[in-house]
């Protein structure tokens, strides 16, 4: 473990991915605006080049430049994170200290989350190259100029969101974590309503912003109460204070308020009501980011608070308070999400409710992680690592098949919309490769072998069972902890979800396409590349995901 106090070259290297995103953000703001503008020296007739304004240079005049810069930035940042994860010498981690206070911790755990964030945003940025309309730079048409200007705005928001998510991943102070959370959240609020000219976009963005702002305000109030209780918002100080004082009425109330903000980000019931409108109103790549990266960000906040602050060395009674409530929340969330998805005729709303159900699966794993502190298993630390690793693996591979499903709907949106299940009709005949990719994503979401979704769900269920029984077997259910029932409920809900996931396959292959939708879909090379990458990841991590599981296990160990 090494520490960096002050801004030096070692800290620059440690924060390389974050600095890459920041530099890319500046480039998108500056480079597309370079031109032959000049300014006059006051009192003279001398004019000097200013490089901003005037006629833009031909080399930077392409409206696609912001998107290409964003893709390059996210690809470089992801490469740096993956390099860190594969470098065994960096496993110990580094601390970033400012003013004697630990601000950031860079280790395997934080980097695996950054890999999730950057991978999702990179795929969304690649897909968006075809999703946003562009036109010739020299044009008097106001719509063309408007769309070209929106290119830079869109990708600035995406990189800002990436920067906020990075802060959440590295933060060791609850206030710093909330700053990163809000930086990412405000960017996603605008991205959801980016197509404000449509009714669905403006409505979804307004609802998402209002509900999200209320949840953030409640969470911020909880922060103030935690500071009043402990005198600090540092994770280590809060954990020590919790261990010494135990669960008091003030701390539990504060914890409840803080968890409201994170529960909204993961779309846990009953904080999920804005999610279906937000997902259906946003364009598909943005909806995919909400269902993957944004959800992982909320889950990261829950893990930081519940596993670092409340679990270590806490008495059983103090832990039992939130463990029981979290278990109930997990059961309600996964069941409600799947039941609501059954009756949805809008594919994007169906995937939104599916995302709610997956939030319930993650909460079930988090509940089991908290249960190891009660001495239910002899190797408590190992049991915790197993479930944390399973949860990390699930969130990572979810990027491929959940985001991939939204991207397929994005291709349909380029044709005229994907708000009805019938818009997928006949896709198997019109675009066989797209239909195959969508079917792979659906069966992976349902948990069918050998897809990555099956392996991730299996690991989560096995981890919960291991914690509940103490042996990893089901031979002594009567002596098992009640979290075992969450594993059983996951199996039941996965069976329920098979209906609406496989219904997509039936519509694609056995229904005739709608009138006016019988030819090939709109061309779009970049979004199809993103879909192909998602399909490859869905299959590859299901068949040969061992190395990724090992990385997740190392990340889980670095959390303790």
Descriptive report:
This protein has helices spanning 9-14, 16-30, 65-86, 108-128, 142-170, 174-192, 199-230, 235-245, 249-265, 275-281, 284-310, 316-342, 347-371, 380-415, 427-430, 432-446, 452-469, 484-510, 525-543, 546-559; strands at 2-5, 38-40, 47-49, 94-98, 101-106. The chain has 560 residues and is mostly helical. It has a domain at 1-170. The model is unreliable at 313-318, 374-379 and 471-476 (pLDDT under 50).
Task: Show the helix and strand layout.
Layout: E1 2-5, H1 9-14, H2 16-30, E2 38-40, E3 47-49, H3 65-86, E4 94-98, E5 101-106, H4 108-128, H5 142-170, H6 174-192, H7 199-230, H8 235-245, H9 249-265, H10 275-281, H11 284-310, H12 316-342, H13 347-371, H14 380-415, H15 427-430, H16 432-446, H17 452-469, H18 484-510, H19 525-543, H20 546-559
Parallel strand pairs: 1-4
Antiparallel strand pairs: 2-3, 4-5
Helix pairs in contact: 2-3, 2-5, 3-4, 3-5, 4-5, 4-11, 4-14, 4-19, 4-20, 5-6, 6-7, 6-11, 7-9, 7-10, 8-11, 9-11, 10-11, 10-13, 11-13, 11-14, 12-13, 12-18, 13-14, 13-17, 13-18, 14-16, 14-17, 14-19, 14-20, 16-18, 16-19, 17-18, 17-19
């Amino acid at each position: 473990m090494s520490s960096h106090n002050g801004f030096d070259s070692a800290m620059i290297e440690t924060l390389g991915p974050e600095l890459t995103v920041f530099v890319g953000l500046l480039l998108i703001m500056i480079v597309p605006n370079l031109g032959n503008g000049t300014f006059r020296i006051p009192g003279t007739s001398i004019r000097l080049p200013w490089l901003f304004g005037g006629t833009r240079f031909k080399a930077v005049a392409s409206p696609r430049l912001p998107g290409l810069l964003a893709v390059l930035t996210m690809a470089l940042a992801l490469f740096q994170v993956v390099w860190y994860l594969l470098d065994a010498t960096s496993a110990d981690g580094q601390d970033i200290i400012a003013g004697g206070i630990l601000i950031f911790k860079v280790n395997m755990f934080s980097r695996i989350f950054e890999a999730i964030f950057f991978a999702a945003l990179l795929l969304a940025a690649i897909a968006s190259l075809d999703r946003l309309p562009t036109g010739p730079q020299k044009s008097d048409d106001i719509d063309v100029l408007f769309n070209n200007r929106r290119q830079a705005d869109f990708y600035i928001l995406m990189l800002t969101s990436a920067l906020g998510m990075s802060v959440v991943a590295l933060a060791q102070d609850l206030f710093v974590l909330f700053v990163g959370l809000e930086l990412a959240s405000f960017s996603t609020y605008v991205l959801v309503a980016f197509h404000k000219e449509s009714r669905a976009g403006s409505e979804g963005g307004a609802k998402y912003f209002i509900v999200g702002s209320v949840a953030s305000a409640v969470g911020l109030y909880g922060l103030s109460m935690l500071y009043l209780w402990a005198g600090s918002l540092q994770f280590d100080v809060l954990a020590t204070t919790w261990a010494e004082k135990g669960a008091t009425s003030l701390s539990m109330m504060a914890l409840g308020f803080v968890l409201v903000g994170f529960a909204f980000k993961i779309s846990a019931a009953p904080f999920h009501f804005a999610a279906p409108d937000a997902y259906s109103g946003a364009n598909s790549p943005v909806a995919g980011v909400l269902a993957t990266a944004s959800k992982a960000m909320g889950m990261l906040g829950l893990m930081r608070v519940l596993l670092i602050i409340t679990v270590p060395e806490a008495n059983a009674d103090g832990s039992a308070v939130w463990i029981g409530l979290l278990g109930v929340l997990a059961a309600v969330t996964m069941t409600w999400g799947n039941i609501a998805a059954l009756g949805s005729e809008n594919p994007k709303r169906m995937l939104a409710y599916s995302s709610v159900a997956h939030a319930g699966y993650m909460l079930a794993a988090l509940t089991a992680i908290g249960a190891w502190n009660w001495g239910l298993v002899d190797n408590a630390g190992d049991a915790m690592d197993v479930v944390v690793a399973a949860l990390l693996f699930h969130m990572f591979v979810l990027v491929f098949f959940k985001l991939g499903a939204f991207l397929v709907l994005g291709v349909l949106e380029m044709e005229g919309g994907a708000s009805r299940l019938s818009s997928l009709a006949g896709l198997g005949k019109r675009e066989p490769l797209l239909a195959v990719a969508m079917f792979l994503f659906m069966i992976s979401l349902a948990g069918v072998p050998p897809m990555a979704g099956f392996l991730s769900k299996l690991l989560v269920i096995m981890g919960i069972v291991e914690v509940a029984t103490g042996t990893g077997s089901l031979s002594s259910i009567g002596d098992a902890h009640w979290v075992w029932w969450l594993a059983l409920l996951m199996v039941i809900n996965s069976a329920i979800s098979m209906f609406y996931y496989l219904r997509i396959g039936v519509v694609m292959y056995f229904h005739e396409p709608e009138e006016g939708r019988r030819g090939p879909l709109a061309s779009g090379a970049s979004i199809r590349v993103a879909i192909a990458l998602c399909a490859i990841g869905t299959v590859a991590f299901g068949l040969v995901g061992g190395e990724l599981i090992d990385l997740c296990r190392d990340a889980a160990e670095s959390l303790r």
